[in-house]
Amino acid sequence: MTDAPVKLSVADLTKRFGSLEVLQNITTEIRNGEFISIVGPSGCGKTTFLRIIGGLEQASGGEAHLDGRRIEGPGADRGFVFQQDNLLPWRDILANTEIGPEINGALSPEQRRNTLRLLKLVGLEGFEHYYPRQLSGGMRQRVNLARALAVDPALLLMDEPFSALDAQTREIMQTELLRVWEEGRKTVLFVTHQIDEAVYLSYRIFVFARRPGRINEIIDVDLPRPRPLSIKRTPRFVEYVDHIWKLIEEDVRVSVLEEHAG
Ligand SMILES: Nc1ncnc2c1ncn2[C@@H]1O[C@H](COP(=O)(O)OP(=O)(O)O)[C@@H](O)[C@H]1O
Ligand SMILES: [Mg+2]
User: Fold this and answer.
1) Can you tell me which atom of ligand 1 is nearest the CA of 208?
2) Residue ranges of the chain with pLDDT lower than 70?
3) Handedness of CA 160, 164, 170, 175 (dihedral sign)
4) In the chain, is it the N or the C terminus that has fewer CB atoms within a 10 Å radius of its CB?
5) In what order do the strands lie in the sheet with 187-191?
6) How many CB atoms lie under 10 A from the CB of residue 21?
7) Does 48 sit in the ligand 1 pocket, CB within 6 Å?
């Protein structure tokens, strides 16, 4: 992994909303094929960071380059999966999955074959002509993932994609995501507030601190792959979770108190 080419480089990235400094001098490099998670307390700027990388938000200072090109806006080289699925209710699953290629003017028999392959990959073969309302939350997030992959992005950006799901479905989705990821080895930036989810999925974890948001520590997760769910019960795994929890505990305490204070 350390010899893979740099995919995303972020230099001195800063973001302010008015007088609020949300991100301070974020500098990092992510290599091709890495699975990176970002964890940190609520309000530390995780979503803002992802939105800047996605080109949905402008940085106040600094810059980010994807494959050597400066990020200045959204583009087909980045695929997004959010917590809330934003599937179009009047389109069936196949049509929802093909929105990206359609917008890019890339619909073709070959693209159709690729879409069907992706739906099969995420476990939705046979559901192509269902509508979003007919699917469970977990299935809708599978569609979201297939849709993000349909444009074959250089970078996959995922913002708490499983946090609306129940605990069992979430664990199934974690294993499924790893299985899908093993197929294509996309570079992934994955935001979560679930520490065990981050440890389970990642090569490296960026632990953010808040006020202002910044990278507090980077953890290399040196656990073998493929990773069965039972790895979560091993001492090494639990050590990683404990270590990260200790890093953000105080921050989380403060952010919970602030939320209650309104
Ligand atoms: N568009 C915006 N305008 C003003 N403040 C914002 C905006 N978006 C986010 N913030 C603030 O920036 C901080 C970081 O938010 P966010 O990136 O959503 O954090 P996280 O995803 O880590 O919970 C929060 O204090 C939030 O209220
Ligand atoms: Mg967020």
Assistant:
1) 22
2) 1-2, 262
3) negative
4) C
5) 78-81, 155-159, 187-191, 35-39, 204-209, 214-220
6) 16
7) yes
What local confidence, expressed as pLDDT, does residue 1 receive?
Answer: 62
Six-digit token pair at 74?
């959204």
Residue 161 near ligand 1, beta carbon < 6 Å:
no
Q: How far is the CA of 30 from the centre of ligand 1 (A)?
A: 23
For residues 197 and 227, the answer to whether their CB atoms sit within 8 Å is no
Burial of 10 (0-12, 13-18, 19+ CB in 10 A): buried
d(Cα 103, Cα 123) in Å, to the nearest integer? 25
- pLDDT score, position 262: 64
Nearest CA to ligand 1 atom 7: 17
Residue pair 149/117 in contact by the 8 Å Cβ criterion: no
Q: Supply the DSSP string of 16-59, one letter for each residue.
A: EETTEEEEEEEEEEEETT-EEEEE--TTSSHHHHHHHHTTSS--
Q: Is the CB of 24 under 6 A from ligand 1?
A: no
- Tell me whether residue 17 is exposed, middle or buried, using C-beta atoms within 10 angstroms of its C-beta: 0 to 12, 13 to 18, 19 or more: exposed
CB 81 within 8 A of CB 24: no
Indicate which residue's Cα is closest to atom 24 of ligand 1.
43
Indicate the SS3 state at residue 199: helix
Which amino acid, 8?
L
